[in-house]
Amino acid sequence: xxxxxxxxxxxxxxxxxxxxxxFELPTGEMGFLTGRSGAGKSTLLRLIALIERNSQGQIVVxxxxxxxxxxxxxxxxxxxxxxxxxxxxxxxxxTVFDNVALPLVIAGHRHQEIGRRVRAALDQVGLLxxxxxxxxxxxxxxxxxxxxxxxxxxxxxxxxxxxPTGNLDPELSRDIMELFQRFNQVGVTVLIATxxxxxxxxxxxxxxxxxxxxxxxxxxxxxx
Amino acid sequence: xxxxTKRRARTERRGLRQMxxxxxxxxxxxxxxxxxxLSRRPLGTLMTASVIGIALALPSGLYVLLENFRAxxxxxxxxxxxxxxxxSDVDDASAEQxxxxxxxxxxxxxxxxxxxVDALAEFREASGLGNALEALEAxxxxxxxxxxxxxxxxxxxxxRRLVAELGARAGVDIAQFDLQWVKRLFGIMAIVQxxxxxxxxxLSLAVLLIVGNTIRLAIQNRRAEIEIAKLFxxxxxxxxxxxxxxxxxxxxxxxxxAMLVVGSSLELLKGPVGHLxxxxxSDFVLKGLGGEATLVLVGAGAAxxxxxxWIAVGRHLGAIEPR
Lengths: 224, 323
Hints:
The complex is a heterodimer of chains A (about 220) and B (about 325). With about 220 residues, chain A is an alpha/beta fold. Chain A contains 7 helices and 10 strands. Chain B has a 4-stranded antiparallel sheet.
């Protein structure tokens, strides 16, 4: 589902955030992306989300070569990806329901359809009773679960998480990771950046390790 | 047509219908959302709309006054006079007789005869050249007959024919139709009208800037929301839409406020104007904007609001990309 082939990202000031990264995450798999701060985890996710463009190599997501994706098509491409952020990035002036509904409104679904799907997503993260609440009245773990509901409500084939448990205590972190596993079990490809090594070692998923922009572990797939 | 093609045609039609429906639904959703946003901050919205309203009311109010003045002056064409300067050899008796004869003409409402003696006295009084005139041996002024044409003979062609006819009469030296002051009046009104246009252009520009700036601030305030929406696949059109509707809303509200301002100002002027008209024995009544001009005013407000937000959105939205 996600293929990196000798991908490099060099900034105009000469700093190379990623160099010659190659790996493949097949459809329906779940992988963790680890490494120290500044190792390039966020950059890698940003390249997949097309927030930034890679300077070298080739990225293929869901059969789509991102180098050849035109600017105008980017919004439609992004609808196939769900994002979860460390700071959840919920809209504070909108209710839980409205936050989760955003991707559906963007995609232009009908009112009834939106209500049905939002409640289904909130049910999956266990927050159905709090749809009328505002994000600030929720706990950190609950806020992150709203973020996850928003990411999955459009049923994207790919989920990306950038340190989704970074602000949570170990117990809540485990809950959140188990939630991701549950989505993975129904066929969603999941890639999560984290430095919570203790937690992910207890789970049996691929671990991609980045160090100073290079992939130093987990990238079995290496084309000639 | 085979069943297969028919079916395909039907699905295509349904697809198009769904697309149109979806497009409509999205626009209606955004319209309600934008109006909701405006009504959530009634004071701020009202203040912005009032600034727009006052800016629009100024040229519209002047326009209404100008139209009223024009209606008032339309009757003045008819009061134009024709001056007949008689030859120096015409004596008082035949001059008076000529005046009476002209009075009998069907195209003429009335005449006034000014004898050369009266004319000199009048001139002496008005010009202040009394002493200089004393030095003259003879009165240089001719007799003058002032002719007021009938109201239904006051068209330009009628007047021209009348002037020619009067000029051909024995004893008449020069027949002059004195339209100068009417022409001057219309000249002044043309200047005022041009002034109103210039003012309207500048104030329209001001409205564009007001709306543009308001929308710019709204975009900045909702930066986080725009970034998130872009990350979840919002197109530029989707993000633009609520801001355009907001601009349209400001413009519409501004237009309606302008309408109220002009209407109530005229209502305040109506009393004194009526009183003045009464003093002139006129049945003149101050006219309002009228239905068509009101539509134009509100429409112009809406168009300016939409244009202002379009410019602001074009300039500022592209700069916001997700982090």
